[in-house]
Amino acid sequence: MPFSAQPPASGERYALSASLDNARHLSSLLRAVHFQDHATCLATASGLRVTVEDAKCIQANAFIQAEIFQEFSVQEESVTFRISLSVLLDCLTIFGTSSLPGTSTALRLCYRGYGYPLMLFLEEGGVVTVCKINTQEPEELLDFDFCSTKVVNKIILQSEGLREAFAELDMTSEVLQITMSPDKPYFRLSTFGNAGSAHLDYPRDSDLMEAFHCNQTQTNRYKISLLKPSTKALALSCKVSIRTDAQGFLSLQYMIRNEDGQICFVEYYCCPDENVTEAEL
Amino acid sequence: MRFRAKIVDLACLNHFSRIINTIAKLAKTCILRLTVCKLYFILSDKVANGGASMWCELSQGNFFDEFQMEGVAAEHNEIYLEFVPENLWRAFKTAQSAKAVKIKLTNKHCPCLRVAVELPSLSSSSRIVTHDIPVGVIPRRMWNDFREPSVPDFDVSIYLPVLKTMKSVVERMKNLSNFIVIEANLSGEMNLKIETDLVSVTTHFKDLGNPPWASEDGYQSSAQGRDVESMAEACIDIKKLQQLLAGQQVNPTKALCSKFNSSACELQLVGSFAILSFSRISVFIFVCLKVNIFTAPEDFQYLYF
């Protein structure tokens, strides 16, 4: 095998180096935030965060904790780079996406630092693939400043409850209206489409409701086109936490359990739709 | 000019329809050449369309229980027909549980291949579904365009890896680039490479083995005395390669890729070869793809199946 096909010795200095027994753990999480071509990656000692944004209104973060990797080391305090997510996903799934039992793609990932390409070494069944993906200048990310102390309302649902609702959303409606309230209707999803309005209520004592902490009645509208990409994460997740802050910013946190039972999180932040007058509510 | 044939055996029918399916995936139109003992499916694409060509040779005795043909003349006892393989594949799709399939050349309003499928039924009378597939009869003066391609001289020949792995690698690479570089050497190593502004990806296969046929007549020149480590390479249209791999309905038991070079050009050439062996039938489909027409107009990649 030529020298270039050998993964680098661990003695070499890399700003970021990591290895993973099953590359699918990474690719499935990245697919959950793949609604724009470019992603910004931030690696710290605690793990890797991949951020995708669109229209300055929505941000998706996939968190892959350091524990998910067999080896994960970051030489600097934090390492940031921007990368084409579709290229990265094509590289990670080069041996196919199907999950045949007993076969898994091993991954080694290295990044030397600013200006260098991201190197991926993938191996399956004795076949080695080396990918060099050029990195780009990281862009300024949106800061939603969404901290847990500012949360007004919070609901944790089992994902299957929301999956059905999202699959049946009236896509002719421009917005999805979310009502969260300590009193009836507790948690309501509404759409206003060509064929009329639809309201979907979740009772507080539903089996799907894992936690219900609502302090005040809040009604906010969100563009459906912005929320639609989050269904990719919803499809993989087992639980979802829906939170809003005082300004109506929405946070959707998806808890995703991979094949080995490890837990990862994908988070979506979305701005409320501004064109809401009091009269419409 | 007459032609009629009949398939009764279910296994033969299945093999035949799988071959038609593979051909339908590779070619929009193709030539059916009928002789007394053999039938050939031939695709010889013009360079402008990517230059893929294919040669598939079947012995009629391996498939048909009845086979009668009468060519244009006694001394040219052959028939050349042009048809759309997709149409023939549709006709055979309905024939999966057929008791018998009859194929006949007819001329009602235009020349047609009539595929009559006899389907089993619960009552005593059987059901017959008939497909008329329009064909064009190729005049004798054009027969020379469809001669068997010769195997070019090559530098390296190598067995291909498991086609499923290769297929998925080529499929991903197709998303990233338009051209793929295939390189191989005489010590059983093969690499698939793409390189673009965004990304470069190389997949390394090893321990593939090199077929020993280099010593056969006519195939030995360039491959002999070659450094076993040095790579021969060719750059080809990735879509054509992907199409070929995706169209694989018959699982080749052995696939072989040989690379050759044209003395006139710097760039070297690729060829590959697969022998499909069924329990009692051997099928050779010869496919050849035109290589990177931008850099080397005279270079070909050959893939034989």
UniProtKB/TrEMBL annotation, chain A:
Keywords, comma-separated and alphabetical: DNA damage, DNA repair, Nucleus
GO CC field: checkpoint clamp complex
Pfam families: Rad1
GO biological processes: DNA damage checkpoint signaling; DNA repair
Compartments in which it is found: Nucleus
Gene3D superfamilies membership: 3.70.10.10
Coiled-coil residue windows: none
Xref: CDD domains: PCNA
PANTHER family: CELL CYCLE CHECKPOINT PROTEIN RAD1
Family recorded in the similarity comment: Belongs to the rad1 family.
Role this protein plays: Component of the 9-1-1 cell-cycle checkpoint response complex that plays a major role in DNA repair. The 9-1-1 complex is recruited to DNA lesion upon damage by the RAD17-replication factor C (RFC) clamp loader complex. Acts then as a sliding clamp platform on DNA for several proteins involved in long-patch base excision repair (LP-BER).
Subunit structure: Component of the toroidal 9-1-1 (RAD9-RAD1-HUS1) complex, composed of RAD9A, RAD1 and HUS1. The 9-1-1 complex associates with LIG1, POLB, FEN1, RAD17, HDAC1, RPA1 and RPA2. The 9-1-1 complex associates with the RAD17-RFC complex. RAD1 interacts with POLB, FEN1, HUS1, HUS1B, RAD9A and RAD9B. Interacts with DNAJC7. Interacts with RHNO1; interaction is direct.
Protein name: Cell cycle checkpoint protein RAD1
Protein's organism: Geospiza parvula
UniProtKB/TrEMBL annotation, chain B:
SUPFAM superfamilies to which the protein is assigned, alphabetical: DNA clamp
Xref: Gene3D superfamilies: 3.70.10.10
GO biological process, one term: meiotic DNA integrity checkpoint signaling
Keyword field: Cytoplasm, DNA damage, Nucleus
A Pfam family annotated for this UniProt entry: Hus1
GO cellular component entries: checkpoint clamp complex; cytosol; nucleolus; site of double-strand break
Subcellular localization, as worded in the UniProt entry: Cytoplasm, Cytosol; Nucleus
InterPro entries (UniProt xref): DNA_clamp_sf, HUS1, HUS1/Mec3
Similarity comment text for this entry: Belongs to the HUS1 family.
Function: Component of the 9-1-1 cell-cycle checkpoint response complex that plays a major role in DNA repair. The 9-1-1 complex is recruited to DNA lesion upon damage by the RAD17-replication factor C (RFC) clamp loader complex. Acts then as a sliding clamp platform on DNA for several proteins involved in long-patch base excision repair (LP-BER).
Subunit structure: Component of the toroidal 9-1-1 (RAD9-RAD1-HUS1) complex, composed of RAD9A, RAD1 and HUS1. The 9-1-1 complex associates with LIG1, POLB, FEN1, RAD17, HDAC1, RPA1 and RPA2. The 9-1-1 complex associates with the RAD17-RFC complex. HUS1 interacts with POLB, HDAC1, FEN1, PCNA and RAD9B. HUS1 does not interact with RAD17. Interacts with DNAJC7.
Entry protein name: Checkpoint protein
High-level lineage: Eukaryota, Metazoa, Chordata, Craniata, Vertebrata
